[in-house]
Design a protein that fits this description.
Blueprint lengths: L1 H14 L4 H23 L6 E7 L10 H11 L4 H13 L10 H4 L7 H23 L8 E5 L9 H9 L6 E5 L6 H15 L4 E7 L12 H9 L4 E7 L10 E10 L4 H5 L1 E5 L5 E5 L3 H20 L2 H17 L17 E4 L4 H11 L7 H10 L6 H11 L8 E8 L3 E9 L24
Parallel strand pairs: 2-3, 2-4, 9-10
Antiparallel strand pairs: 1-5, 1-6, 4-5, 6-11, 7-8, 10-11
Length: about 450
């Protein structure tokens, strides 16, 4: 009742043309003051540093060029030739190149998906990235205080965190978290969780492993919505070291500024647009709905609404709020949304490489250029959709190109089932030179290439 009275009063004031500028200015000032106090409170917590990270670069023997994918599809789907044709049409328009990776079980004829094969893929991806991270950081696994692993479909018993604990002989008191079923946006959920832990526990290290174990994904039926993941998802993963230790302040690559998570799963279409299910023949797979691009757009808008006031300069906040207020008061659905100029805040953008259509839609919604989306497009081409780890391949691309300079701000945007849109903002702590230990070291000179 109180809200109705407030809205009625607000509409009365807004209807008066003379009061509009004063009303909008007053609301803007109030929001800025509230934001200032929130940021002041947040600043009391210790800084969270991204010390370093490592991406999995699988052996070349696991690469899956288009012609090999076609040969395998004709054998694996011999009873459904129309499914083979559909997959090849999707692959031709997908934006994926010929050097993406599939796990060992998918190279077998026929494929041999199993729990054991999935464990094998997990060991390849996780151990290679963790070994690389520990080596270049000269970090003893005994120094890890928190371990967070995210992978959606593969949730074995014992968990992947237990597998890692056993492999690296970690301390008995390390706190472990195994996140499953949270889709391609789970990497930033892991960052959020690690951040919250590091805010409370001083002088601590947190390691995040973000991946998607896809061996059990492979679908051999004829439902087209469930054939799409075969064409888009590829093998990959990353290990990330976060810390609040002051000794890492100068050594670390980035400092975490913001994490904002939004979830629109209360809407049926959003909830069902990425869905693990059985088809009419009882075959299990992941269904990708035709509504996915529109759902992703809605989720992005919700995230921007929650995110904008934290990062935008006052002029952009003013125009953004003015547009929102106008839309609420007029109740007109055709009111064109104001797209803030995010390039006034961010130097680089890492948008989840979910597919060519997703990248194109995000570029349009954010008012960005092809060059702004270059890390996403090149990651999709070279590594495919590696789910939640794609953001780290994109960041590695920027580093390999020598683009990361001290003071640069990076916006990571993750989209995932549920449906969720999550954002993270990092500030570059130092100039980062082109390193030879990342996943791009043997091919960066060939990029960028033109991908529609």
């Amino acid at each position: 009742m109180t809200l109705d009275i407030f809205l009625s009063f607000f509409k009365t004031l807004y209807a008066d043309d003379a009061m509009k500028p004063i009303l909008i200015l007053s609301l803007s000032i109030i929001i800025v003051i509230i934001t200032f106090f929130i940021l002041s409170f947040i600043s009391k917590h210790p800084s969270i540093y991204l010390v370093d990270y490592a991406c999995c670069n699988p052996p070349k023997s696991l690469q899956s060029p288009s012609d090999a994918f076609l040969r395998h599809s004709r054998i694996n789907l011999s009873s459904h030739p129309e499914s083979v044709d559909f997959q090849m049409k999707v692959l031709a328009r997908s934006g994926l190149g010929d050097e993406t990776y599939l796990p060992p079980a998918m190279h077998s004829l026929p494929p041999t998906p199993s729990i054991e094969a999935s464990r094998n893929e997990a060991e390849i991806v996780i151990y290679s990235s963790l070994d690389s991270l520990f080596k270049k950081m000269e970090l003893n696994p005994q120094e890890v205080d928190f371990l967070v692993v995210n992978t959606s479909v593969f949730a074995p018993v014992p968990s992947l965190t237990s597998m890692i604990m056993r492999r690296y002989n970690m301390r008995e008191d390390v706190k472990t978290f195994n996140l499953s079923g949270m889709g391609c946006s789970a990497g930033l959920i892991s960052v959020n969780l690690a951040r919250d832990l590091l805010k409370i526990h001083k002088n601590s290290n947190a390691v995040i492993i973000t991946t998607e174990i896809i061996t059990l994904f492979y679908y051999t039926g004829k439902d087209r919505s469930m054939l799409l993941p075969n064409c888009l998802f590829r093998m990959g993963g990353a290990s990330v070291l976060l810390s609040n230790k002051k000794c890492f302040r100068k050594q670390s690559k980035y400092r975490l500024l913001h994490v904002v998570r939004t979830h629109i799963g209360s809407f049926d279409k959003a909830y069902k647009c990425i869905h693990e299910m059985e088809d009419s023949e009882g075959k299990i797979g992941i269904s990708l709905s035709k509504d996915l691009p529109n759902i992703a757009r809605q989720a992005l808008k919700a995230n921007i609404h929650a995110f904008a006031l934290q990062v935008l300069p006052l002029t952009e906040v003013f125009f953004f709020l003015k547009n929102v207020i106008k839309k609420v008061v007029s109740k007109r659905k055709d009111t064109k949304p104001y797209v803030p100029n995010f390039k006034r805040v961010f130097k680089h953008f890492c948008v989840h490489a979910g597919g060519r259509g997703v990248i194109n839609n995000m570029q349009t919604e954010l008012g960005l250029t092809w060059q702004d989306m270059e890390p996403s497009r090149m990651t999709l081409h070279r590594f495919g959709n590696t789910s939640s780890s794609s953001l780290w391949y994109e960041l590695s691309y920027l580093e390999a190109k020598g683009m990361m300079k001290e003071g640069d701000r990076i916006w990571q945007i993750a989209l995932g089932s549920g449906f969720k849109c999550n954002s993270a903002v990092w500030m570059c702590n130092r100039n980062i030179t082109n390193s030879m230990d990342g996943p791009w070291f043997d091919c960066i000179d060939r990029y960028p290439i033109h991908v529609p």
